[in-house]
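Record passed on underneath.
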Amino acid sequence: MDFPWKRNLYVLWLGVFFCSTAYSMVIPFMSLFIAHDLGVTTHLTLWSGIAFGVTFLAGALISPYWGSLSDKYGRKPMLLRSGFALSAVYVLYFFVRDPYQLIAVRILSGLLAGYVPSAIALVATNTPEKHVGYSLGVMSTAGAAGGIIGPLVGGSLSKFIGYREAFLASGAVVLVSALIALIFVKEQNFDRNRERSHVLDDLKEATANRPLMGKLLVVLIVTSSVMVLEPLLSLYVLDLGASASDASLSSGIIFSAVGISTIIAAPFWGKVGQRIGYHNTLMIGLIGGGVGNILQHFFHSLVGFGILRFVYGLFFAAVFPALNALIVQSTKPDFRGRAFSLNQSAAQLGNMFGPIAGGALGSWISIPVVFVLNGAILAVTAMTLRFKSLFGNRRLTESEGTKMQG
């Protein structure tokens, strides 16, 4: 491949970093924004769960359509569409006056999303096969890095300039990701003359691909596992002793602990996956993540909880790079844009179910018990993959993967 794929990798890393930063900036204070600025005093955890989850429901429904357009017109146009549209949507948050308006804007945000899956698909289809695992591991660190910086910046901004102004800052950050794609990203290995597929045909083709469907189911489960804690952590840090005035900043630090460990570990797991197989790497990540979640039940200080979240992230960092690489192995190049959009749909469904389930569980049982249930689900998923062969009867051989690339 003559095209300098490393430049695309580094440029898109920056784009995903800024896009993820913009999203994660609002996480530490979303629940507090609903309570303080919008005046919600009853069923706060449930409202928080809905606010988080409805965005992802909209994204899950629309992602196959964007994937079809991506394989027809290219991944770069999808980067531009999503980046510029979302920068405008963040401005709308500034004008929200009640929880129903907030839900409407969150739905619009989900309908216009798609930057990250388009970036991953572009990297996967414009990188030499022998470097795909490493490249996807590196791309995972972009989202993790944004997950570090975003909560810290968002928590600080919400404390010192206000929640609404922090939304405007998020819009400016995501605009940077759109400009990066516009100026620097180059896309090759793409046939613009191919006929555009129909969403129903894409779904039929994906359904017939049993290994791909198995991976999408795992994406749904593990994303739900991550997101079930989103509406709860900022409330849990209050239970651990943080003051009300510092709750958003403390939550930002706790959120960032997992992101820091992911940046450290994800490229390592990408290389490990190339040596021992991505399926084995995925198993390690799921088991480590499950144990890490269960142990969170026993830590009752902010410092101890933050350290454990960091260690949990070191293992869980293996999961998404391995899943992305397995999706590449199970699909042909001309279906990868749609495959990663379906992957995004599965992730968005998990992003929807997780916060809603977390909000509902948080109002029914104690938050530490939610940690235990979450860890048990990851452990059961790992065991199911081990004994039920969720990925199908066999995996692609190296020669078969090379033929698919050709």
About this structure: The chain is about 80% helix and 0% strand. Residues 294 and 372 are 4 Å apart (CA to CA). Confidence is low (pLDDT under 50) at residues 390-406. The first helix runs from residue 5 to 25.
